[in-house]
Give the backbone structure.
Amino acid sequence: MGSLSKGFSSTLGKKLIMGLTGLFLSLFLVIHLIGNLQLFNDDGGKAFNEYSYFMTHFLPIKIVSYALYLSIILHAVYAVIITMRNNKARPVGYAQVNGAANSTWSSRNMGILGTVILVFIVIHMKTFWAEYHWGGLPYVQYEMSLQNPEVVRVTQLPFDGNPLVHTKFVDVQNQTEVVVAKDLYFVVQQAFQQEWYVILYVISMIVLGFHLYHGFQSGFQTLGFDHVKYKPIIDFVGLWVFSIIIPAVFALMPIYMYFAH
Amino acid sequence: MSGNMNLTLKVWRQKNATEKGKFVTYKADDISPDMSFLEMLDVVNERLVKKKEDPIHFDHDCREGICGMCSLYINGRPHGPKRAITTCQLHMRSFHDGETITIEPWRATAFPVIKDLAVDRSAFDRIQQAGGYVSVNTGGVPDANEIAIPKVIADEAFNSATCIQCGACVAACKNASASLFVSAKISQLALLPQGQPERYRRVQAMVAQMDEEGFGNCTNTGACEIECPKEISLTNINRMRRDFYNAKFFKEEEIN
Amino acid sequence: MVLDSKIPQGPLAEKWTKHKFNLKLVNPANKRKYTVIVVGSGLAGASAAATLAELGYNVKAFCFQDSPRRAHSIAAQGGINAAKNYQNDGDSVYRLFYDTIKGGDYRAREANVHRLAEESVNIIDQCVAQGVPFAREYGGLLDNRSFGGAQVSRTFYARGQTGQQLLLGAFSALNRQINAGKVEMYNRHEMLDLVTVDGKAKGIITRDLLTGKIESFAGHAVLLCTGGYGNVFYLSTNAMGSNTTAIWRAYKKGALFANPCYTQIHPTCIPVTGDHQSKLTLMSESLRNDGRVWVPKTQEMAERVRKGQLKPQDIKEDDRDYFLERKYPSFGNLVPRDVASRNAKEACDDGRGVGTTGKSVYLDFGDAINRLGKSAVEAKYGNLFDMYYQITNENPYEMPMRIYPAVHYTMGGLWVDYNLMTTIPGLYALGECNFSDHGANRLGASALMQGLADGYFVIPYTLGDYLASTGPAPVDTSHPAFAEAKKNVEDQINTFLSMKGTKTLDEYHRDLGLIMWEYCGMARNEEGLKKAKALIQELKADFWKNAIVLGENEEMNMSLEKAGRVADFIELGELMVDDALNRKESCGGHFREESQTEEGEAKRDDENFAYVAAWEFKGDNVASELHKEELVFENVKLTQRSYK
């Protein structure tokens, strides 16, 4: 036990926590992105709302989501702890620093980038996650023809104080499948009608891209992973998948929603 | 002489560790491009001494890039603008006439300023004292050729062993981390068969001392590798991490 | 005074083994009652301090650098010799012994050199066990290269930085003992005096270079491992801080100084560019394997080259003088260091030198590049070419390199007996600062060998013999001799600090260097040496009148540090001149123009000069007294070197 706690309290151990949580968060981004692709479905938000329900009510996913919240907190808290030590390690700075000569801008500004992302996450969770859990969200009803699933009838169920629950059943008489769900899609739609909100999202995703440009491959290094043959693959994935494609697709969502509605 | 340069130097002057320092501007006129950077400072100092002014103190010794004594943070970079050399190997032809050159000491809590541009790097010695050795006494060792070491391994160990303990890695790192230095020392012995018996003990002891000295965290910016006059690779840091995690989290023997 | 070298009796090959048996031992339980002071942390100092601490002695170790690892052994490039015969090419302890004696031009002790050759094999084992990354073959075993003065491949190396790797090995052993509490390490401490009590060395006085504190340290014995004094020439390949102060002050306390005039001048250094030059950089002499040395045939042509009107690559083959190949057809460019150096100087003195200063000759790889191809040359010498390009801004692939000789190593040093003890009981000298093993000329890759042999394998035995005889009674600094020595040091510092003249210390050092280089450098003659002596005396008088020393004692003060070192260099310079005047023969690195063969080669005079010249200090401004230790050669036949 002594060895474990000594291990984690060392500079290397603290960074290991950063690396592990960071990579876990990166992995989550992939899942989150795949899920959110439902937004691009032209189904009045049915897939998206069903997905939202699944994500919040399936036990294993719920457990993982708590790990996720913990990771965000640990990642942020350790960032602060590490930065404090780093500042203490050089209380008197240089008058002139030519950092561009020896390192990437991202690598030198992870703290600022991370702070922006943290603020973004707070706003993001307030708008969607908190609303979904505790806000008075309207419900929506989808009726799909069993013969032709393409045909969907969407009925808004305004919030009138009567508690509704997520339901899914097959109406044999009408030959339809009926889904009643919390209408998070509506919230998303509403949110992304505001220009400043779209801009905030796009900027945040650019920031995320820069954060991951350094963070993804750095996380592997922090784990001690380094291999002449595989490191280039990690660098490639870090650059293309995590710092370009994922943030770009995320950024497309508000833009799409803005223009599609 | 024709081709000589007139320069302006902005030099950090600090009487001792406790007093506050400041930048002082000096004119360095008629500087030959063939001078090394330290010879340029010699010339400036010689002129100061003639005027009975205290010369600029800086550390230096071998002046051929191997003792690791010279330092200087020149125009925002340790050992100046060129790659893979120390300040003593930097020549004035890398600068141009009329240029202003800012010269600062290495900055780190673990490297306190002694005077002007000279800093105390004894933290590096203490880290090595904590475990940077193979515990063999003189005499009674096997014949040198009894241990066959694959050439690639020997070469890789050599690459780590080229570290000259100058501290440029710490100076370059935005976090003042000593990871490149410490990991190079750890790697040399971790790679060689001679270093195996104490491998996990060593990494724990040296990392603990590194932390004790107040160096910052490694955030993998890679600045150290670029500024290292001996081009020591970042791979060493990752190797150190693997050994450290292994020792702390996986080895059953409670070593440290 | 009779110099007793204490060379053991018996056949050469058995002397050391027998001697080790005859030496007294210190009981293991008693060792911790002894304190040993080690000054200097290079190969000799670090290895001695570590080994003595391993044995159980308490060691106080000192270095003036900020870390023991920065001692100038770090800068050795080429390699370390050892008679391992791993190459199966006929090497043996005896052959290494013979090559070293011959290379030293028969001015070293047979017994010492044989011991060195015997211990050479142990050094390699020790270093490998410590984790020194020597070069290896694909099969995993150690690689060797060949070096000057030998016909076998016996040099172990670690790319171009063997010195650093060996020193890091010794440094790691030292660190282990510091960690164990057996060595107390004092960095940035400069030894300023030796303390003797009843004629025995009992301690030292040091200045803390950070705080200026003058401290006394007591020990049962004092080991000086402080390196060479090549910086007496101002320009040399030594580090800026390398100095003679420790051994010089010991000399003034009664230790004899042997063969001070033996200086090694290395032919392949990067030439001086101007007055600002602070030190010279050596390039491995392996360059002479493929490079051809030449100057223009005529002075007129050389003049045009110096003015930049003519490029060396445009000079026709017929207009070039490949003077080494011309004069020494059988050895050509591979003549020994001293011969190559002297001939380069002669060519420059003849007005045919090149470069803006006229003080360099060409080392041309044009032929080699044509013959082997650029990539082959790059593979062999790439790092050296890069270093040269870095310093000179001239591309050696496109134009010939320029080289000039530079002071590199001093074979002279404190006189020591077979036990490495000086004439002061309890004071030992190890490594380059003693005179013992290289005679009048050192072979390449032998300096590292000697430093480590002395520290790892000789002193641990011989020191015990002395300590056992003195007994473990505690020592401290309460004896009045400590207070007196301390006061002398403080007085001298105060004198220095009161010197507010007009001339800087570097100017004095440079002036001294010029005198030494001109008159006591590669070639010496009576007239010049006499002139040098007068000039040095003048310089010395002027120094104490007109030098500028700034600052105060209680701070880091490079001016004050330099003052003491330059003062000692000036005095040593005079002794070197005295020694060179006395030795009317030519031998090894010492070339007296009066003593040369008809072809202009060095001529030894074994009849009159087969001795070690050991000088005794008799007081300031009083002539030192010469003592002679006759050299007896029972195993080798003295022959004249010839490289024609």
